[in-house]
TrEMBL record:
It comes from Yinghuangia soli. This is Cell division protein ZapE. Keywords: ATP-binding, Cell cycle, Cell division, Nucleotide-binding. One of its GO terms (molecular function) is ATP hydrolysis activity. Residues 65-191 form the AAA+ ATPase domain. InterPro entries: AAA+_ATPase, ATPase_AFG1-like, P-loop_NTPase.
Length: 369
């Protein structure tokens, strides 16, 4: 991260942010498409505008509020990469970047620590955001009507603090909370997004996540879809199937989840225990804080999974991707992937784009299996 110095560094921040994106793209061996270029230019302009605003003015004067940016488009078009690269070019402490629903978890935990205070949410917000001038939300999406009012309040709190927002999403603002029965609940938040952010579509022709993973892939891309679900298939990926005596309860707060094994940095679950029981994104985020490798085994054929189980499995994939967890999904029939025409969870196009980055045991040479 670059340390902030007033004067020349501030005046050059727009150019530095633009150059950072070009340098990163060159290092990865590709050229920005037209929609990525437009998004990169708008983010660079934002960096310059933030640098030009007096330090601390966003906390004191409405006239110094800097308009944010909302990047949206299909999965795999580089929205998160653009925002990450831009964020890395900013001065240290200038921006707070977080996965959108991870922010909710952290806010809840912080508000709990401040319980009993007159303005617990304000104290929690100050603890999380500090004096950051920008909050960057990745994967901004709303499907649950119960979240609609919470998200609206969150946006209002941040904007009242004169914080500039940057967000990435697979949805245009007007398409958030798409269920027509509940969409009206989110209309106030959508109006806030249009009022305070420039909406930039990033919808180039290529899904970059479908490109072949480098041979030395690490993190999420070092995981795999493993079929059949047996010791030999697992061994091809350096995994040793746990024995019955390794089964153990893993405690998350007051809850206990049954695991196949808990090893040093490595966590093994049966699909039925992880996805067909009432777990949720908050649980997966907590697990991501503690384990760098997950193996979810015994995944049945897609149509044999419940709709809730499929949704939870998609959430597992999304959290593993966002936290760069090495994820292995094992089962007898293309684990985690639906047959043509089968029902899929909300946002499954994003999940499918991410699964495409994992190695597939069915595509490995026979000698390596």
């Amino acid at each position: 991260m670059i340390m902030w110095h007033p004067g020349r560094d501030g005046r050059n921040l727009q150019a530095r942010a633009s150059a950072a994106v070009d340098t990163a793209a060159h290092g990865l061996g590709f050229t920005l498409d037209a929609t990525q270029r437009a998004a990169a230019d708008r983010l660079a302009l934002l960096a310059g505008q933030l640098a030009a605003a007096p330090a601390g003015a966003h906390l004191l004067h409405r006239r110094h509020h800097v308009r944010g940016v909302y990047l949206w488009g299909p999965p795999g078009r580089g929205k998160s990469w653009l925002a990450d690269t831009w964020h890395a070019a900013l001065p240290q402490g200038f921006a707070y970047r977080v996965h959108f629903h991870d922010f909710f978890r952290r806010l809840h935990d912080s508000a709990f620590r401040h319980r009993g205070e007159a303005r617990a949410v304000d104290a929690a917000m100050a603890e999380l955001v500090g004096r950051a001038r920008v909050v960057c939300f990745d994967e901004f999406h709303v499907h649950d009507p119960g979240d609609a009012m919470l998200v609206t309040r969150l946006l209002r709190e941040l904007l009242d603090r004169r914080v500039t927002l940057v967000a990435t999403s697979n949805y245009a603002p007007d398409a958030l909370l798409p269920n027509p029965l509940f969409h009206h609940l989110f209309a106030p938040a959508i109006a806030l997004l249009h009022e305070h952010l420039d909406i930039v579509e990033v919808a180039g022709p290529r899904d970059y996540r479908t490109l072949a993973a480098p041979a030395a892939a690490a993190g999420f891309r070092a995981g795999a879809l493993v079929s059949p679900d047996d010791a030999a298939s697992l061994a091809a990926f350096g995994l040793a199937a746990p024995g019955p005596d390794e089964a153990a309860d893993l405690h998350l707060g007051r809850r206990a989840l049954r695991t196949r094994a808990v090893r040093d940095g490595e966590l093994w679950f049966d699909y039925a225990q992880l996805c067909e029981t009432p777990t949720g994104t908050a649980d997966y985020l907590a697990l991501a804080d503690r384990f760098a490798t997950w193996v979810v085994g015994g995944i049945p054929a897609w149509l044999a999974c419940s709709s809730d189980g499929r949704q939870r499995l998609a959430s597992v994939v999304d959290v593993a991707y966002d936290r760069d967890i090495r994820l292995f999904l094992t089962g007898p029939d293309h684990p985690g992937r639906p047959p043509a025409g089968a029902p899929t969870p909300a946002d499954y196009t994003r999940t499918a784009s991410r699964l495409a980055q994992l190695r597939d045991s069915a595509e490995l040479p026979t000698a390596t299996r």
